């Protein structure tokens, strides 16, 4: 329990420090950019596993005849069965760097 509490405190401290310096968390910035500017493509869920407060979803998609495989941790608050293996899903990816992607 103390480890979880200290991670939360560290996360809040890091967030406060980055706001103070005028910087955004790089992962949050990447996800925000992909949500705003990423191209949408269809992919397939390969596997799901519990991951802390969410679910780790492994998926694959194809861009310009190249197959990519990635994963995303999604919040499952009240939606434990939102994803399942074999499901077709929308994925947002960076057209300049197709390996950079998130579940839509």
Automatic annotation (TrEMBL):
<dbReference type="Pfam" id="PF12158">
    <property type="entry name" value="DUF3592"/>
</dbReference>
<dbReference type="InterPro" id="IPR021994">
    <property type="entry name" value="DUF3592"/>
</dbReference>
<feature type="domain" description="DUF3592">
    <location>
        <begin position="37"/>
        <end position="104"/>
    </location>
</feature>
<protein>
    <recommendedName>
        <fullName>DUF3592 domain-containing protein</fullName>
    </recommendedName>
</protein>
């Amino acid at each position: 329990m103390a480890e979880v509490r200290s991670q939360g405190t560290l996360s809040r401290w890091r967030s406060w420090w980055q706001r103070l310096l005028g910087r955004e968390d790089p992962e949050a910035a990447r996800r925000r950019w992909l949500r705003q500017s990423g191209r949408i493509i269809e992919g397939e869920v390969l596997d799901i596993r519990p991951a802390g407060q969410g679910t780790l979803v492994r998926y694959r998609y194809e861009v310009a005849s190249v197959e990519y495989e990635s994963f995303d941790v999604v919040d499952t608050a009240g939606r434990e069965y939102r994803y399942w293996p074999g499901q077709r899903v929308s994925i947002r990816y960076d057209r300049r760097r197709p390996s950079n992607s998130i579940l839509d």
